[in-house]
Amino acid sequence: MTEKNACFRFEDLQGWTSSVFQALEVDKKDADEAAHLLIRTNLRGIDTHGISRVTGYVDKLRSGELNAHPRIEISSRGGMLFVDGDGGLGQAVGSRAVSETVSRAADTGVVTCFIRRSGHLAAIGQFVLEAAERGMVAVICQETPPLMALKGSSRPAIGNNPIAFACPVKGKPPLVFDMATSVVARGNLIQAISDGKTSIPDGWAIGPDGEATLDPQRALQGAMLPVAGHKGVGLAMMVQVLAGSLTGSMTADSAASHGATSSAGNVSAFLMVLNPALIVGQDEFDNHMERWVSTYLSASGEQSRYPGQRAAEYEIKRKAAGIPIPLSTLGELEKVGKAVGVAFDLVTV
């Protein structure tokens, strides 16, 4: 234990998280899948989207905004997959969608999947990572409620709609790129407030007056700023079409009912999985990946990495040494555990 963090074994955190969801009547399979993905997110160093999200999910399960007993339906039409999550935990819905899409891509080559009525998906790179670990190239993007706007805006204008893709790299960790179309994900604001910080970096957000702010509380009342200005807004609009307009999304309705930043069970997403073995041939794909990745790394210096390598290193390290949990987050988890009857009494490492 350090002054600001306590470290726990990932297996213990995963077991506790699953037990919390099961205490709220989530099916064990769905609870285990959600816990696995959330804790793996921590293992890979993305702490803003891991176990710290449990508190919000518990609140929404207790309020009924998330469905503890979803009937996830998968259908196909015109060579496309459609997944209706029935308001269930996003990790369970997303994993089901990835599994089915990857399975079909083994024979079809390219499969598109439209996901609707899902709970919050957290770090969407985790879903395409699992596809890449099964030999596939995958792209996913998710519509969010309005969270982002350009300077001068009177309120959030569009979601900070994240985009992620992943692909296998023979003999190395998969390449995984995951980004919000805002400068930083909104979870960074929430974490800053949770950590008691009174200032955030310049360029992250605007306040409710449309002007840039360093105050995380005012930023939460305002909007996130897009990456690269109008270019980030353009990317967000692309996601809005793919994950929103093409899914008949109810995210806007959910935001109006539950608040503009709600993660209730109406999240929509677009997923595409491509099988390189059927498209170009496995050997040709692997060789091409090796050539351009080698060029990129050799040109970028001795400390160069491609996206996904650092996260893979984190995963190895944290599996051995434990996952650090900030004391502020630890306090929230203890409250959650007490509220649902699953004490957070894990032993530190």
Write a compact overview of the structure shown:
The chain has helices at 10-23, 28-43, 54-63, 90-108, 125-132, 187-194, 216-221, 230-245, 251-258, 276-279, 282-299, 309-321, 327-340, and strands at residues 5-8, 73-77, 80-88, 110-118, 137-143, 163-169, 172-179, 205-206, 212-213, 223-224, 267-274, 323-326. By secondary structure, the protein is α+β, with helices and mostly antiparallel strands.
What is the fold's blueprint, element by element?
Elements: E1 5-8, H1 10-23, H2 28-43, H3 54-63, E2 73-77, E3 80-88, H4 90-108, E4 110-118, H5 125-132, E5 137-143, E6 163-169, E7 172-179, H6 187-194, E8 205-206, E9 212-213, H7 216-221, E10 223-224, H8 230-245, H9 251-258, E11 267-274, H10 276-279, H11 282-299, H12 309-321, E12 323-326, H13 327-340
Parallel strand pairs: 3-4
Antiparallel strand pairs: 1-12, 2-3, 4-11, 5-6, 5-11, 6-7, 8-9, 8-10
Structure description:
This protein is of the alpha+beta class. The chain folds into three domains: 1-63 and 322-349, Malate/L-lactate/L-sulpholactate dehydrogenase, four-helix barrel (Hypothetical Oxidoreductase Yiak, Chain: A, domain 1); 70-182 and 227-307, 2-Layer Sandwich (Ribosomal Protein S8, Chain: A, domain 1), CATH 3.30.1370.60; 190-225, no CATH class. Helices cover 44% and strands 19% of the residues. It is built from 13 helices and twelve strands. The chain has helices spanning 10-23, 28-43, 54-63, 90-108, 125-132, 187-194, 216-221, 230-245, 251-258, 276-279, 282-299, 309-321, 327-340; strands at residues 5-8, 73-77, 80-88, 110-118, 137-143, 163-169, 172-179, 205-206, 212-213, 223-224, 267-274, 323-326. The strands form three sheets. The chain has a seven-stranded mixed β-sheet with strand order 2-3-4-11-5-6-7, with helices on both faces. Strands 9-8-10 form a three-stranded antiparallel β-sheet. Helix 1 runs antiparallel to helix 2 (28-43), helix 2 (28-43) packs across helix 4 and helix 4 (90-108) runs parallel beside helix 5 (125-132). It is globular, with a radius of gyration of 20 Å. The N and C termini lie close together (7 Å). The mean pLDDT is 94.
